[in-house]
Write a structure and sequence with these properties.
The complex is a heterodimer. By secondary structure, chain A is mainly alpha-helical. Chain A has helices at 2-20, 25-45, 66-97. The longest helix of chain A is centred in the last third of the chain and has 32 residues, at 66-97. Chain B has 21 helices and two strands. Chain B has a two-stranded antiparallel ribbon with strand order 1-2. In chain B, helix 14 (325-356) crosses helix 20 (471-486). The mean pLDDT of chain B is 89. The chains are: A mainly alpha, B mainly alpha. Chain A binds chain B through residues 20, 25, 28, 32, 35-36, 38-39, 42-43, 46-48, 67-68, 71, 74-75, 78, 81-82, 85-86, 89-90, 92-93, 96-97, 102-104, and chain B through 130, 134, 137, 141, 144, 148, 151-153, 156-157, 159-161, 163-164, 167-168, 170-171, 174-175, 177-179, 181-182, 187. Chain B: Residues 127-420 form the NADH:quinone oxidoreductase/Mrp antiporter transmembrane domain. Chain B: Keywords: Cell membrane, Membrane, Transmembrane, Transmembrane helix.
């Protein structure tokens, strides 16, 4: 499971990074979203992966580390708000500058 | 009551911000009064906290009375108290300046301003790594909106870069926090310091990776060389009071570097000791060189001041890179000076731009100013202070920095710092003579500037002579702060009395 998990996180990060480096605002926003998904997955795994563990403290020995769950929740909320903001910002930049290039260039040889 | 004083710098702006959200438009007078009163109260609280911390006692506030390492704590030591006071002084100048009319160019200026203060104060106080991230986000989100305040093409374009870069930075911050939590099993910085001290060797690589990633994030906030390209444009296009407040934002990054690496990777960290040092040292020197070139190349007064912020960042980071108590003491003195004076210069640039009409802050011939004499005097004081020429505080700050360099460090720091100062001096004198002397064509027109703007600028720029007059007490305080930072054991023992035996 670790391998699958690591690969998912890695692929998401790579895609996010690639899209973030594009020249148009839309791919950049999608890239940032993918990056934040990857980060959430990564944070979730940072307490170590266990299967079938109880979600909260129980009498048994092995239970899931509750801290990463709390952190992921915080990170999701913050990431969601930031994505909403950056979408609005990109739209405003599109209407004020007249095109959707991140540098506001007129012609683009991409 | 007194033991709750530590949480006030966070609660006060939060409550004030909520009060200010009451209505989006209108109620101008009410909003201004609430905002200024809250900021002045914050200043008083910061003075109280500074007096409390000056004795060397470390106090902490466990939120909800959950003790460290399980709960979130706010920690007050000399460094945090000093940073809080600098923020509050800067904020008073900026908010009074904004009351002259800048706050009405968009909506919710004062509420956002207070929340920005909330984020900054929280970042200075918190003793928890994840909480540091949360406060960074608070201050960033407020700064995104403030940067856009008033709108306009240039601001939106600068904002796009700023927001995207900082969002990527936030992701990196979370990854770094995740790695450090995975390797050490805690997020409380004091607790992490203990665990890093007796880290199993197979985890050293992980912690190194996490720590250096954190350095990238803090470097982005502090605007260190490969990560500073967002800064000049963002600062030059921000509204003046916001740009003045942003003068403290780069210092948040510098504070974070100072705090995290002196606490986690101090003497006890074994093989990981001072792992950031070579990176910070060389990159700071490169930042200085690049900023010197930028200062010379700037064709706009606001851009020039933005590059002067970069010069100060390079100087401050070089102080961290030297990693000696003497250097830290020097950099803290320089930090107070540079934050307040560059903040004042941003405000002054706005006033000059307003009086010159169409020419604005561009360094071209324009019409003469109505209140040219007063502005020229202030510019003279600010320029001398920021370039580091006696008799003002910049000279003392830079002399302390130069004095703190030892051995081969001198070989690198002295020429670079002195050449950059020369570049600033040339650029500022060129700017001043263009703005004030080469402008006698055309008619004098325009209205006198509001008194609140004068107050804001004089309040901030008076730091330059005051820091010289009070250089003795200030530098003895910064020296004590540096010693406290060099001995993180005291902080760890205060926060975690039960684990004190484990700390070597």
């Amino acid at each position: 499971m670790e391998l699958l998990y690591a690969m998912t996180t890695g692929v998401l990060t790579a895609c996010g990074l690639y899209l973030t480096l594009r020249g148009r605002t839309f791919p950049v926003v999608v890239g940032l979203t993918l990056l934040s998904y990857a980060v959430n997955l990564f944070l979730f795994s940072m307490g170590g992966l266990t299967t079938d563990g109880p979600a909260i403290v129980s009498e048994g020995t092995g239970y899931a580390d509750p801290l990463p769950q709390a952190l992921v929740l915080t990170a999701i909320v913050i990431g969601f708000a930031m994505t909403a903001f950056v979408v609005i910002l990109a739209m405003r930049a599109r209407s004020e500058v007249g095109n959707d290039h991140v540098d506001g260039k007129k012609e683009d040889r991409e | 009551m007194m033991q709750h004083l530590v949480v006030f710098p966070v609660v006060l702006p939060l409550v004030a911000g909520i009060l200010l959200l009451y209505q989006r438009q209108g109620l101008v007078r009410y909003k201004r009064v609430v905002s200024v009163v809250a900021t002045v109260l914050l200043l008083l609280v910061a003075i109280g906290l500074l007096r409390q911390a000056a004795s060397g006692e470390i106090t902490y506030y466990a939120l909800g009375d959950w003790q460290a390492p399980f709960g979130i704590v706010l920690v007050l030591d000399r460094l945090s108290a000093l940073m809080l006071l600098v923020t509050a002084v800067l904020a008073v100048g900026a908010v009074v300046f904004a009351c002259a009319g800048d706050d009405e160019k968009g909506s919710n200026f004062h509420g956002l301003f207070q929340w920005q203060l909330l984020g900054i104060n929280g970042a200075f106080l918190t003793g928890d790594l994840f909480n540091l991230f949360v406060f960074f986000e608070v201050l960033l989100l407020a700064s995104y909106a403030l940067l856009l305040h008033g709108g306009g093409k240039a601001r939106i374009q600068a904002s796009v870069h700023y927001v995207v870069l900082n969002l990527a930075g936030s992701s990196l911050f979370l990854i770094a926090v995740g790695i450090l939590y995975g390797a050490t099993g805690t997020l409380n910085m004091a607790d992490m310091a203990i665990r890093v001290a007796d880290l199993p060797s197979e985890r050293e690589g992980l912690v190194t990776a996490g720590a250096l990633m954190l350095l990238v994030v803090f470097g982005l906030k502090a605007a260190i060389l490969p990560l500073y390209f967002w800064l000049p444009k963002a600062y030059a296009s921000a509204p003046a009071p916001v740009a003045a407040l942003f003068a403290i934002m780069t210092k948040v990054g510098i504070y974070a570097i100072l705090r995290v690496y002196s606490l986690l990777f101090g003497d006890t960290a074994g093989g990981l000791e001072a792992l950031e040092q070579p990176w910070v040292w060389w990159l700071s020197l490169a930042t200085l060189a690049a900023a010197g070139i930028g200062v010379m190349a700037a064709r706009d007064l606001r851009l020039l001041v933005a590059y002067l912020v970069l010069v100060s960042v390079g100087t401050l980071l070089a102080g961290i890179g030297m990693r000696s108590p003497q250097a830290v003491s020097a950099l803290l003195y320089y930090l107070i000076h540079t934050t307040l004076v560059t903040g004042g210069l941003f405000l002054l640039a706005e006033m000059i731009g307003l009086q010159r009409g169409k020419a604005g802050t561009r360094l071209v011939k324009g019409r003469p100013m109505v209140q040219g004499a007063g502005l020229a005097m202030l510019f003279f004081v600010g320029a001398i202070a920021v370039a580091g020429v006696p008799p003002f505080s910049g000279a003392i700050g830079k002399a302390l920095m130069l004095n703190a360099a030892e051995g081969t460090q001198r070989l690198w720091l002295w020429p670079l710092l002195l050449l950059t100062s020369l570049a600033s001096l040339i650029a500022l004198s060129r700017a001043g003579s263009t703005l004030f002397w080469r402008s006698h064509r055309g008619n004098i027109s325009g209205t006198p500037l509001p008194r609140r703007q004068w107050f804001g600028v004089i309040w901030l720029l008076s730091a330059a002579p005051l820091l010289v007059a009070l250089a003795g007490p200030v530098s003895s305080y910064t020296q004590a702060t540096a010693e406290q930072l060099a001995n993180p054991q005291v902080l760890i023992r205060t926060l975690l009395p039960n684990d004190a035996g484990d700390a070597p």
